[in-house]
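Hello,

I think I submitted the magnesium ion job twice by accident. Can you confirm which output corresponds to this input? Input:
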Amino acid sequence: MKGKIILTAFLAGGCFIAQAQEKKAKPEDTEVYTPVPPEVKPGKKCGDAPSDAVVLFDGSNLDQWVMADDKSPAKWNVSKGILTVNKQAGNIETKKSFNNYQLHIEWRVPANITGTGQGRGNSGVFLASIGKGDAGYELQVLDSYNNKTYTNGMAGSIYKQFVPLANPTNKPGEWQAYDVIWTAPVFGSDGKLQSPARVTVLFNGVLVQNNVELKGPTQYIGEAAYRQAHGASPIKLQAHGDKSEPLSFRNIWIREL
Ligand code: MG
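Support: Only one job matched these inputs. Its output is below.
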C-alpha cells in the first residue's frame, strides 16, 4: 500500500486538529506506469519526419497546399524535390488547419541573392494564417547572413515582436532549418482572449525563441494585439514582394500535439 496516511483527529481548545503520520516513503510511491506514451519511429537522420508526422511537402507535389487568398491549387514551383516561391502568384497555405503542433521546415536563399535589408530573401512562415494577405503570426524568413536590418525583423524573429536570441544563419546557397513548437491562442465563446499564443523556435538547432508569449498576430504598422478570435488555422508561406531572387523550401512536416 503506497503513501498510507493515518489520520487522527482530536479536539483541542475548541478546534479539530488533524495529525498526519505518514508511513516511510518508498521509491515506488512516485513511479508512474500509465499512460504509456505512443511509440514513434524517429526519422533516419536528424530533421527527417518521424512516423507519426503529417508530411506537408515531401519533394513531389503540392497536394497539401492551396493559394492562400482564393484556395485554388497552389501555384508555386516544384522541381528536383524542392519548392520555390512564385512571387507573382502570392502566398500559399496548408489545406488543413492546426492548433498546437511541432513543425519542421527547411529553407534556402539562393547563392546569387541580391538586395539589402528586408529586400533580400524575404519570406515567412505564418504559424497560423487568420485571413488573406499577410494576416497571421509570422516567423520571419530572410537572408540574415551579413545582412543588416531591424533585429526584430531578421531571420528567426517573430516579426516586429521578438528578436531572436542568436543568429545561426548559414550563408546563402545553404539549407536552413526551423523547428517550431506552437501553442495556439485560446479564445472564449465571448471572443475574448483566454490565453495568448506561445512559440519556441530552434533555428539550425539553435534556440532562438524560448516559449515567448505573442502580443497578437503580426502587425506591420503599429502595435500587435488580439483583435479577432480564431480557432485552428492553416500554416501559410509568404510570397514577399521584394525584388530579390525567390527562395526555396523542402522537407516540411508537422506533428499535432
Ligand atoms: Mg517575411
